[in-house]
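Task 17 of the worksheet. Students: predict the tertiary structure of the chain below and write it out as structure tokens. Keep your answer in the requested format; marks are given for formatting as well as content.
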Amino acid sequence: MRAIIISLCLFSSSLFAEQLPDGPHVITTGFAEVKANPDMAVIEVSAEVTHSDGLQAKQALDKRVEQFIRAAAKELGLTEKQIVAQTLYTHPEYEYPEQGKGKPVLVGYKASRNLSVSLTDLDKLSQLLDLILSQELQQVNNIRFVMQDNTALATQARQLAIENAKEKAAMLAKSFDATLGPIYQINYQQRNNVPVIRAKSAMLMDSAPTGGYLHDELTVSDEIQVVFTLNVKSANCDL
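Model answer:
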């Protein structure tokens, strides 16, 4: 027993130097992850209009975006807070002669804008995508599945990590005929607790009867490191 305890102290001391207690102790790292289904989809869309006049290009694009927002509110019940329209950009469009002969010719102006749509009713995702295309917003750039609020998941993952650290420490102490003493140190770094989105961009499955979009579960993980002192029947860890 004495030899075992001493070797444990040597191993621990080499890792953490002066931060560890002088006597027998055990270090454990608790880890846990919690999975859940996403409850919101974020759809990133781009829209653009090209016109010979820059102002008319902007006005045409504004009209198209406004029509989409009204249609989304009427058909899907989306609010303005769920649709974020990014800054509008306009730039000239040129036609370049072949083989670099001659000067570029101005053919018009392009107005472009990106939109981000947050959908909390995932059953309406296919309907929303149909609406986007019917309103001539051109392109769906990305679809992400996320959690609206992962606070409860983060709390659950943290508590499970704590229990995991305790269980490991108790098991190790018992294996060496010792018992856990008071906690000497807790090392914990707050995570951002952003769920890992394991789903790729949503894929339309031809085999799905309603054109459904499939996604994987989201995962929130956490970990904590704890140093416990050890109570042993007869041990001396003076090194």
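Marker's comment: The radius of gyration is 30 Å. The domain at 40-146 is CATH 3.30.70.2970 (Alpha-Beta Plaits).
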